[in-house]
Each structure stands twice: as C-alpha cells, then as structure tokens.
Amino acid sequence: MTSAELAQAYAAGRLSPVEVTEKALDRAETAQASCNAFTLIDHEGALEMARAAEARWQAGTPLSPLDGVPSTIKDIVSIKGWSVRYGSRLSDPTPCAADAPSVARMRAAGLVFLGMTTTPEFGWKAITDSLYSGITRNPWNRDVTPGGSSGGAAVAAAMGAGVFHLGSDGGGSIRVPAAFTGISGIKPTFGRVPAYPASPFGTVAHIGPMCRRPEDAEAMLAVMSGRDLADWFQGAAAFPALSPEAVTPKGNKIGVWRTPPSGYVEAEVAAQFEKSLADLAEAGAELIEFELPMRDQLLDIFNWHWIAGARRRLDMLGDFDASQVDPGLYQMAEQARDWRVSDYVARVNLRAAYGAEMDRLLAEELDYLVAPGAAILPFTAGEELPENSGLSRWIEWAGFSYPINLSQQPAMSVPAGLSAGGLPHSLQIIAGRGADSQVLALAKWWAGRHPEYFL
Fold first, then answer.
1. C-alpha span between 260 and 152 (Å, rounded)
2. How far apart are the C-alpha atoms of 166 and 182, rounded to whole Å?
3. Is residue 149 among the annotated active site residues?
4. pLDDT tens, 97-140?
5. By three-state DSSP, how is residue 112 classified?
6. pTM of the model
7. List 133, 173, 413, 426, catalytic entry
8. Residues 6+ apart with CB under 8 A from 5
9. Which helix (H) or strand (E) is 168 found in, with range?
10. Which of 3, 71, 74, 133 is catalytic?
11. Which of 43, 72, 199, 318 has its CA 20 to 30 A from that of 161?
C-alpha cells in the first residue's frame, strides 16, 4: 500500500499502525535474513512508536497525514538513541544524543522507525558491503549487488520492509541502488533537505527518499524538506514548495543524455533506454540530443571532490588501524594525502563553471534531461567493479550519476522494465535546480504509463 492508502485506512479505522508495523517488521526480518539489508531492526522501539500513532488516530489527532507510516533510516544519519555506525568498525558506538534534521522532521510527522539500513563504510562507494556489516545482496538475484551506498534502503523498499526509506546520494548513492532494485529514488536539489552535521564529502552529498512508487517519494520528500539553521550550506533562499502537479511529456523539450563522461554503457541498457525514449516521443515530447558541458573534465573534477572527502573522513578518525578500514576506501583516501590546496580550488572553480552552464541549459533550452539510471546492470555482490570491466574505481561506471551531484539538480531513478536476465532497468529524470516537483510529476506520469514496471 502507498502512504496515502495507509493514511486513508488509518483514518477510517480499517487498519492500525501497530498491525502495519508488525507486518513491516516481519518483512524487515525477511530482508535481513535473505539479503542483509539492516544493521538494526528495532522491534520494541518501532512498536512503541506505532502504538502512539494508533492512539493519535483513534483520538482524531494524528501528527500528520503520514502518522504511523513505517520507515527506515540509512546507517549514516543520526537518530536519537541509536548507535549510528556509518558501516564502519572504527565508528563511535555511543548512541546519538539528537536526531539529524531530516530524521527530526520524520519523527515530528509521526513516522515509525523500523531500523537502520546498511551502507558501505562511510558511504564511500556505489555498492553496499563493509567489514562491519558484510555484503548486502539484491532481492532480484542474491548473487548480484543492489548497488549503493544506500543499498540496504533499496532492498528494504523493494521487499516491502516499510514505505519510506531515507537514503543519501554523493555520487549516485540513491539513484544507483534504486536503478539496481527496481524502485524509485530521488536525489533532491541540494539543500532542499537539511543535513547536519555537514558531510565530509561536502556539497556533492544530498539526502533524499527511496520508495517503491514516485508518489511516496513525493510525500516523504515533503516531510523531510525545509530550512534548518544548523545547515549553513542550505543558504537563506527559499525553495519552491513541492506541488502535486500533473504533467505529460507533450510539448516538453527533453534532452537525451546517452554518453557518460566515464565508463561505458552496456548494450542491453542502451537498447532499453531507446524503448523509453520511444515512449516519451510517442507521448509528444520533443527529444533533443544532449552532451554534457565540460564532459572530458568531469571525472577529474568529481574525483578531486570525492577523494578529498574520503581523506577528510579518515582523518576524522585520528590514529586508527588501517587493517580495520575497507581497503578500497583507504587506497582512495591515500591518493589525496599530498594534494595541493590550490589544485583542489582549481577544480572547485571548474565545477562552478560546469554547474552554471547546466543551470543555464535547464532554464533556457531544456525542460528535462533523461538518461539511464545506471550505465550497467547489477553485477557480482561484494565486488567494486564488474568482471573484466577494465575500470579502476566505482566512480568510473557511475557516469550517469556523479555529474548531477556536481551540478546539484534534482534527479530521480524510476523502474523501466527488466533485462533478459530478470534484473531491473531504469530511467533517470533530471530538471533544473529547485524543480523537484517537475521531476516527480514526470515520474508519476511514467508510473501511470507503465504500472507493470512498479512494485
């Protein structure tokens, strides 16, 4: 059931938040047993929250229309009373003293917290495994990865362990696992969802919702969004309010982004993307071939931002045993040990030039940009790279995601059918900064056109 359907059932007394939470906890245990999706399942705490929601609905005083909807939180965002471990053996196990702003907003709306979902160590890569929690697997095929770094959240969503799932996205960490597991996940415009403390990975890191359907992502994003004075990076400008507008592709100028700045596109992914484009054209969209500005420089620009962030994250640990850190994370962070500050600032300035041109293109020339949610299909679980890919790091195969972290536009991955091997395909929808409702509206149209694609 969607969050709206649950709310209607709660209001009418046809369902209780306690009953729904018990079922969601059962699904969470199944997701954990089969795919290793959780670092914590809090039966007692979730049922306590559900009983409070039930009492409020019975009294006619719900905290919000979403009071009692079961939710999960990625093990990288602070939750009062829980030990947030960031997927790391070296993290502090002391329970958090306060909620992160996004979690506080979810709590204030009455959402029920089932538990914390898995992440690679400090969210450093677009797959989900760690020395701390082991390998998270894809429910479509347990031999392959669900992607990451919000892989546990994606698995929980796909397997029905709750309706709302909080993820984060620094280089594709919402959109890649959404693509790999056949769910809907949106990286909002940077700053729409407040974050505190600030991410060591800086202003490429976004927080957003992951759900089975776009309308749930829209409802969750509305709850999570807003100004929080603890998040200085938000700035003081107000975002356009989310609105439940309806759109069709007809008359819209949609840029077709076929070529990522790194890696390659699998032939089957490219073929399915062509089918998605044909759907959009048939519905009246004007499709315009698109090349990213500064395409040949984007991998280098992102690497400087991401690898410097990894260096900072490990430096925050002080003296530590390197054998207790993911070897890939350690090796990547070591690259930045002797980087020059002036060279880093040069990449920041290049990023600004790229972002400004993306803003202009999506304000003056295009209504939307579309691409595959991921350039490749899910590959072997526990591996950073597809076999025989010739690539050196996950960033290279995530070429349809990290450029939009650099430019900070809203971007959403939605299901687009299944591969010949039964693994999910995806479509990514992108619009100008602040146009989150526009992205969600086209995603909802897509879900209405292809209900068979959605869980």
1. 26
2. 16
3. yes
4. 999 999 999 999 999 999 999 999 999 999 999 999 999 999 99
5. strand
6. 0.98
7. 173
8. none
9. strand 164-169
10. 74
11. 199
